[in-house]
Every structure is written in structure tokens, then in C-alpha cells.
Amino acid sequence: MRISRQALHDWLPSLLWMALIFSASNDAGSAQHSSRLFEPLIRWLFPLMVQARVDEIHYLFRKCAHLAEFALLAILVWRAIRHATPNRPPPWRWSQAALALLFVALYAASDEFHQMFIPGRCGQVSDVFVDASGGAIGLGLLWLVGKLRKRW
Question: Any idea where the domains of the chain sit in the sequence?
Fold first, then answer.
């Protein structure tokens, strides 16, 4: 099977981003390890903050990171799907956005499944929802920007 140069151009950013997400799913990407960087920064900015509040901020920071990484994945996958469609359809199609979101949700589920086999990590269904929500937010922002710029 030969992969065309155009298909590689269209899908390579998505595949590279997915590889980055996959690599962050190892033990080094766990909350325990990210707190080593995050907690000293919070302590430096807010030296009197109680530990429970630091933990809450760290948790929210990690969930926002999930939202952002899967928002970008959804946009990259949408771009690849859009470019793969023959006869260049109109710039925005809800069916393409839905397919991109489905792809992102399935990848999020596979990522959480993968984490179940990593010591120090655990797969959580709630993270699949957070990740899929990030994908939906990314696609929603893409649609909004396109609408404001009168591209679709």
C-alpha cells in the first residue's frame, strides 16, 4: 500500500500530535510527576496558599491541558478529513466535524485504556469525557472563527 504525498501532508500533523499525547500517557506524564514542576511555581507565586488549594489548582490545570491537547487534535483531524474529501467541498461541513469529534473520542478512550497498563497511571472514563469535550470546544471555536471571518 502506497501512501500519497498529499495524504501524508494532510495526516502527519494529526499523527505527530497523537504520538505526543501517547507519550504523555506514560508515568512521566502523571499528576505525581507534573506536580514537581507545578507545585513549586504555585508556592513561589502564592507562598501562603494551603496545600488543598494547590492540589485543586493542579487538578484544574491538568484538566485544562487535556481540553487544550484534544481541542488541537480535533482541529488537526478535521483539517485532514476536509482535505481528504474529493472535489473540495465547502469549507465547513458538520458531518466532517462530527467525524473528527468521533475520531477524537475514540482516541481519548484508547488513551485512557492505554493508561490502565502504566504503573502510576489509571484510565478514567471521566477523562474521556473531558478529552471529547476539548475536541468539541476546539471544533466549536474553529467554526466560530470561520463564521466571524466569513469563511463559511
Answer: 5-21+63-148
